[in-house]
## 1
Amino acid sequence: MNTKIGILFSTVDGQTLKICNELKEILVEKGNAVELFSIEDFDKKVTDYDKFIIGASIRYGKHNPKIIEFINENKLALQKTENAFFSVNLVARKPEKASPETNPYFIKFLKEINWIPKTSAVFAGKLDYQKYPFTDRLMIQLIMWMTKGPTNSKTKIEYTDWDKVKEFAVLINNI
């Protein structure tokens, strides 16, 4: 097969990168050549790849502006390439908000850009209060309190559904 796949990501606390590494591992096992780049380090062209995946996390209700800028600047190239986008956020820990059609951040994201990914997914992230700087911890605790999530400052929960990540990788492999 030897399809060339690029994966571009933006992460705040590392969970999106962890998901990207899992996608890469599965796709390489299936015979693809996969390169992984952070949004800060990408210096190639989308069209250098047969398939191009973008993964981005949410912080305070927004994706990294550099991801939005990248998509807006590369929209035509993305349309010429098999592409996929996934969002990582804690709201997706709730089953009713764990799909592109029901996740409010994903829906809002699509309204901000003028691009529809060919394949998309939403994954729940990881909550680790002790890893956050003090102000972030307070803000996230407030958000979690408002959304009836855990607020104990010692909470550490990985909500990511790894089976769902594997299914997404297989889907990308087969397109």
Note: The beta strands are 4-10, 33-38, 51-59, 62-63, 82-89, 119-124, 126-128, 156-158.
## 2
Amino acid sequence: MAIKIAFAASPAPVAQTARAALIGRYGDCPVDEAEVIVALGGDGFMLQTLHNTQDIPAPVYGMNRGTIGFLMNEYRESGLLRRLEQAEEAKINPLYMHATCVDGSTHKALAINEVSLLRAGPQAAKLRISVDGRLRMQELVCDGALVATPAGSTAYNYSAHGPILPIGSDVLALTAMAAFRPRRWRGALLPKTAKVRFDVLEADKRPVMADADSRSVLNVACVEIGSDPSITHRILFDPGHGLEERLISEQFS
């Protein structure tokens, strides 16, 4: 019996062309009836697809029609059904972000890669960090800080010199960006169950924005972050090229 596939593609012409070709060969079905969702684009579109389909049980198999494609498989039009049957599955939980702004408004979002706080003015941010209700750092002066999942540890976190985390490590990375004081502080490894709170000091003078997978909130006063085990994203990879292997290989490249 053929697999019921729903094809999704980014607006890029190369992705739209690929979607049309694949539908012509394998057919298409509504997302809520699919056994597998095939996402065509880059990593940004893959994250968007995972967010959009988080309430649908079907796993997502990405094929790269973007640039880097860390979360994607190689694009090939032929042999898709066999690749889907043999694919390896990775399960990941997103982070939640609860942000309270200076004006008292509150905002919630989910992030598969990371939640980051970034200075939004000419002066460095001043952040106070608490973990599980315990004050851990009275004042971090920096360009920003982030909490990353293992799946997102090779993205913004790695660019900020944070550690690459194995997919099954059950830890989160708390990483500083351009820390000025304490100058040598690079971050911490926290258990996956940890609840992290950032309080923005001198928020009026040193504005800070929060970002959860490109969902931004301006002028935050405090941000709470933690893993959300109630949501599980299922991602499919070709055998031998799964997320765990990619995270290990990235450390030797």
Note: The chain has a mean pLDDT of 94.
## 3
Amino acid sequence: MQQTEDEMGTKREVAGLVRIGAGETQAMRVLTDAFAELRRNHPRVTCQLYTGNADAVEERLERGLVDFALMIEPVDVRKYDHLELPARDTVDVIVGTRSPWTRLDIVTPQTLVQMPLLVSSRTTHRSFDLAAWSGGLVTSGRLNVVGTFGLIGNASLLVETGGVCALGINHLLGLQTSALRFLPLEPQLTTGSVVAWKRHRIFSPACEAFLEQLRATLEQ
């Protein structure tokens, strides 16, 4: 009710709440830059941020609990309107500095299937297409999966013990610690992101203004 009152309270100034669900990715900077610019022009616009993997974020989008969903590919966006983001994330194997695997410089498909791995708990969409990356050498059945995680933050504490490794995105802020190393995959594996919203959704003035600013930011 408060959100509706804020949005309808004045026609002279855009106001209201923009709800964004997002995965852990550097591509989020595009959305935060867009929102910051929107706030400079319309200071009564506020935001609500939710962080989760693609399954959780898409569920909230379907339930109307977020207005925009930033999801790491692969995702099925056929039922949504969406924008593809230009930034791409690099997928690495994250190891603790106390792990025997830390001596490696790269991780090949043959090595990956031997490592004790924590992997994303995503089920609606695969996390990464390892079969295509490895030319069919790495399948889900061949991986030595010892656990799953929703978000990498708490999982990284287990990786720090040295007993397990994790397959995840490089350059995330919470993972920049001396207790962890990022081992690049060979060949390199990258993944993109999309911003999606429900088709035929009637947006509030705040959400319309955010989408307009997001498009402008992407064009710059």
Note: The mean pLDDT is 91.
## 4
Amino acid sequence: MSNPLLRGVSFDERLRFLRDGVVCLRGIVSPGWIELARDGIEQRHDGVLQRVVSESGASEIAGQLTVTRRLRWICDQLLFDKDVSAATTTPWHQDMSYGLADSHRIVHLWMPVDHMPRETAPEVVRGSHLWKTGYRRAGWIGPADDEAQAPELPDIEANRGAFDIVGYEVDPGDVVAFNHRSLHHAGPVMSFGEKHRAFAILCADDELLAMRQPSRQPAAEAFRAA
């Protein structure tokens, strides 16, 4: 697995990521790393997953998308293991409303290790990473801080026709990459007996500020990607 990526990010894919805030990179991660990520999710093995973060070529994907060389990774235990018994959606949100720094150069890489229909995989509001608004989390109750002053998130799911929503059916080896300012969510598992597992990684350049509220999402120590 010395050459982890099966291909590079194309010029068109980079443009779509910068313009839309999201792109699906088809067949870019090698089967060996997908298998390792699958084993790490099955075993809940942080050491295996951190190896996927640091050696699978994910840093190269983010670097090619953002044209940024100096990157730091946060392995934030962002893994998903859904089955039909967990038929709930991940609500629409911005990652920046969960304590992350407000930077346009933070990339969320979502790597499925099983086939996933669009209904279960992430959906993103196209172009929302360019909006000037940072929204308050749904149902947020807390002290009077910056988030308390932010506007409430619109009800995207109840008004889907009013938003330009992008989604993908994905297979192992694909990566859905989106800007962390983008509004996004994921749907429930609908098919009985099917596994829908994925591993998500966050990447940021050296201008990343420390997470403002680490108690909400404990993060592993950030480390320099190769």
Note: DSSP finds five helices and eleven strands in the chain.
